[in-house]
Amino acid sequence: MSKAFTSEETPDPPQLVPRRAPLPAGSPNYVTARGLAALRSELAALQAERTHVDELTEDDERARALTALQARSQELEERITSAELVDTSTHAPDEIRFGAHVTVRGADDVERAYEIVGVDEADAAHGRLAFSAPLARALLGKHVGDAVTLRTPRGEDELEVVSVHYEDS
């Protein structure tokens, strides 16, 4: 095969760096203490990773890796700078606000637990809802005993608020 047709002459495609979940337009970057600590830890890990990238012998590989690290670091630094740590000790203990741990019961009599958190720490698999998520928005301002109607692809679900608490309460 002619060298003209080998992949050595084809430039590598630019590296795509996955973006973080966007903040809602015009909304503050609310975070819990755990969320802010996680952002700082992630940034420290990226800075430590840079040491390993600097040791790469291939110039192209090192340049791509450094570009990706720089983009991720810059985005994290922006999130940390814009973070607004929410003090949940000022919330009414029986009202659902940012940082609340909430248990709801559906029509099927199954209880589900959620925590309302910042965009960067949202994790549906662990019951952490971003404050901008539809369910979180429906729950905000509610109290134990209140009912919430949520539109879903299956129709409308009605949930009853069973409990509300905050980590430091």
Tell me the span between the first and last alpha carbons: 72 Å
Task: Kindly state the number of beta strands.
Answer: 7
Element order, helices and strands?
Answer: EHHEEEEHEE
From the 3D structure, determine the CATH topology of the largest domain.
Answer: Chitinase A, domain 3
Which architecture of the largest domain per CATH?
Roll
Number of helices: 3
The major β-sheet equals: 5 strands, mixed
CATH class of the largest domain: Alpha Beta
Number of domains: 2
Under CATH, the homologous superfamily of the largest domain reads Transcription elongation factor, GreA/GreB, C-terminal domain
Order of strands in the sheet with the most strands? 5-4-3-7-6
Shape descriptor reads elongated
Name the average pLDDT.
86
Q: Approximately what portion of the residues adopt beta-strand conformation?
A: 15-25%
Low-pLDDT stretches are none
Q: Find the structural class using helix and strand composition.
A: alpha/beta
| Alpha carbon gyration radius | 22 Å
What is the chains' assembly state? single chain
The percent range for helix content is: 25-40%
Describe the overall structure:
With 169 residues, this protein is of the alpha/beta class. The chain has two domains: 28-85; 88-165, Chitinase A, domain 3 (Roll). The protein is built from three helices and seven strands; from the N terminus they run βααββββαββ. It has helices at residues 33-54, 59-82, 134-139; strands spanning 29-31, 83-85, 101-106, 111-117, 128-130, 147-152, 155-165. It has a five-stranded mixed beta sheet. A two-stranded parallel sheet has the order 1-2. α1 (33-54) packs antiparallel against α2. The radius of gyration is 22 Å and the shape is elongated. The model has no long low-confidence stretch (mean pLDDT 86).
